[in-house]
Every structure is written in structure tokens, then in C-alpha cells.
Amino acid sequence: MNLKKISPIMETYSRFDVSMSFGKGCWLFDEKGNKYLDALSGIAVNTLGHCHPKLTAALSEQMKQLVHTSNLYKIPLQEKLAYKLTKISSLNYAFFCNSGLEANEAAIKIARKHGQKLGYSKPKIIVFEKSFHGRSIATISASANPLIKKGFEPLLDGFIRIPLNKIEKFNELSKSQQEISAVFLETIQGEGGINIPQEKYLLALREICTKNNWLLILDEVQCGIGRTGKWFAYQWENIKPDVVPLAKGLGSGIPIGAVLTNETSGKLMGPGSHGTTFGGNPFAMRAGIETLKIIEEENLMENAIARGKQILESLNNAFCKNKEIVEIRGCGLMIGIELKKPCKEIARIALEKGLLINVTESNVIRLLPPLIISKDEVEILTKRLIPVIKEFI
Ligand SMILES: Cc1ncc(COP(=O)(O)O)c(C=O)c1O
Q1: 323 and 186 in one domain?
Q2: Which of 248, 276, 366 best tests ligand 1's pocket when mutated (most atoms within 8 Å of CB)?
Q3: Are residues 89 and 133 in the same domain?
Q4: Residue 161, beta-bridge partner list
Q5: Is residue 3 one of the residues assigned to a domain?
Q6: pLDDT digit string, tens, across residues 336-370
Q7: What is the pTM of this model?
Q8: Strands 27-30 and 35-38
Q9: Structural domain count of the chain
Q10: Which of 97, 133, 164, 259 maximizes ligand 1 atoms within 8 Å of its Cβ, making it the mutation to test the pocket?
Q11: Maximum separation of any 2 CA atoms in the chain, in Å
Q12: Are residues 43 and 84 in the same domain?
């Protein structure tokens, strides 16, 4: 008789055989007492690390006061977070939801409304190779990776896919009268391998979108909320998008999503056009408000820039002449190390050495440490990571 207990968890992930028991700052501790430096932040989520005392205190207080009321009533904490987000993004409206894919769904719906308003019966959205926007039917349709689409057909129509950084593609599209209503991309691609658009590319996109009356939608789910050293990665290019989906780092671990819009795009959605039961509840709003407050109080964006530079410098010194490394690239604390060969295994080897990292696109090592990571912790990170990579390649 097989006495092995079968897990009732649906196997949508292949997980490491490790369970974390508690966390403190940039460190996680498993059930056996092993200690790990978290250089991944639960995939760009734990902005403030684990159990930040100020966040924990605020959320404990909120938990005792009010958690959920539904959107049938006014929620002052929603207004408060919306004011802050619109101020730091230079946008005008916020809609709150619970995750990145939901923020992107809302953005896609806004793009459709915009197209319908322009009189298009089948409005199209331009999307990009190597993009990732989530796991709903609409967002897998917008995403590039064929593996996440397989078996879920029929997918959603209305996406035109082009390569990143090829500006001439836009000129062709704008002439071909395809009822385009929006251009939708991650300001920095995360799952696609930390791909940073060439300088001035976003600026050129902004101009093309304005000229053609296409919405510029910049998915900042992974790269937003201070991760690159600015509130939003598009601020490095000094541009203003029309629609910005957010999630991940905004709640520092509490599920939250938001879509920010400019004046006209926000007005496309009226009462009854969109909604969510949990979205914008007082508990999640408090997590967002406190996260943004602590980022400012503790100068975490400055820290992201300094620590990002420190990591890139160490990696470049260690691998500058190594032909097995294709490229080391990053912006703030969003860093990719592209290897010539597939390297999924590196995440497991690093875990065994007490370091949490991740591999994406099969050959890009991804680092997304909490924004609170210190100089000394970065030293530990690179001292653990460099030998792992050297041994692997
Ligand atoms: C850029 C981007 N957009 C959207 C998503 C989807 O977010 P979620 O997993 O919260 O639905 C992700 C998740 O990795 C992401 O990186």
C-alpha cells in the first residue's frame, strides 16, 4: 500500500522542496532553521523585505479597525492612496484591483473603450515579443510566451505583436489603417529576461501614440513602485504614459493591483463598466499607503540606485571577460544576467547556498531584492552568487 500523502494542491507550479517559516528584513528562514538571503522578494513583491516593523504595526492596527466593506460604500483609504499614486505618477485617476493581471485586464478594457469611441468595430492593441502581462485569457493573449498559451485556445483576438526597439514597425502600422487603439508594453520586460528598451525608444513611442491617438499603456507591475530607483521606470525617460497598470511591490506582500490613467482614459470607465469585489479594500489600501510612505521615509529609491550599482559593479568585475556571459543588465534593483546556455538549475544551486534568485527565459538569472537591502547584504549576495555562476558556466 502506498502511504505517501498526495497533495491536494493543483500542480500549477514546480516548487522547490523548501517551506519558509518566517522572515525578517531581507532574510527568510525555513522550517529546518536554514537561513536564506532573499534576492527575489517573492518576485518583486516584498518591497520592504519581510515583516517590516512599521508595515506590520500599521497592518495590525488596520486589521483591528476595518478590513473589507465592498465598493458599494466610499472608502477613504482608497481616496488617500489614489491621491498619492496620481501625484507621484502625474496621472489623474486610479482603479484598484488585486493583482497584476487584473490591472492589465482593466487596461485592455480601457484600450477597447478608447477604440470603440474612435468608431472602430474591432480595435487592436500593439503588443511585444517577449512580453508578459499575466495569466487570464486576455493577458495570455497579450503576452508573448507560447508555453503559457498552450491548451487555452481560443485566445482573444485583437493583438498585433512586434519586436521591441524596432521603431520602423510603427510607421508601417500607422499607415496600414488597422484600427489600432493602444500600444501596450512593460516599461522594462521582467519575465522576458530584464529587457530594457533602448534609450529614447519610449520617447519615440510616446510621440507616435500621441500623433495617432493611440493610448500608451506601460505595464509597471514588476518594474514600478521604486524598484528601478524612481517611482515608475518610465520616469527615467521623462515621459507620461496614458495608462499604467501596477501591482506586486505596491502592497509589499499584501495582494493589491491598480491601474492609473490620465484624465481622458479614466473618464472612459463609468459606473457599472468595471468592478471587483475585493479590489481597493481598506486593508490592501493601508498596505499601499504605508509602503509608499516607508519608501519615502527610508530613502529606498536612492538605496535601490546605489545597491543596484553595487551589484552591477561586482558582477561586471567578476565576469567582464567571460564569454559564457552574454550580458549583465539592470536598472536599480531589477537585474538580469544573461548566460549563453540554459541555467534553470542555478536557482536550485543558489538556494542550497542560502540565496534566493530566479531564472527566467531559461537563461537569464534574475535578481529583484527588497528595496531595503543594505550594502553589507549586497556583499553577501554577490559573494554567494558569483561562485555559483562561475562553477555553473
Ligand atoms: C510585467 C507583469 N505584468 C503582469 C504580471 C501579472 O501579475 P500577477 O501575477 O499579479 O497577476 C506580471 C507577473 O509577473 C508581470 O511581471
Answers
A1: no
A2: 248
A3: yes
A4: 127
A5: no
A6: 999 999 999 999 999 999 999 999 999 999 999 99
A7: 0.97
A8: antiparallel
A9: 2
A10: 133
A11: 70
A12: no
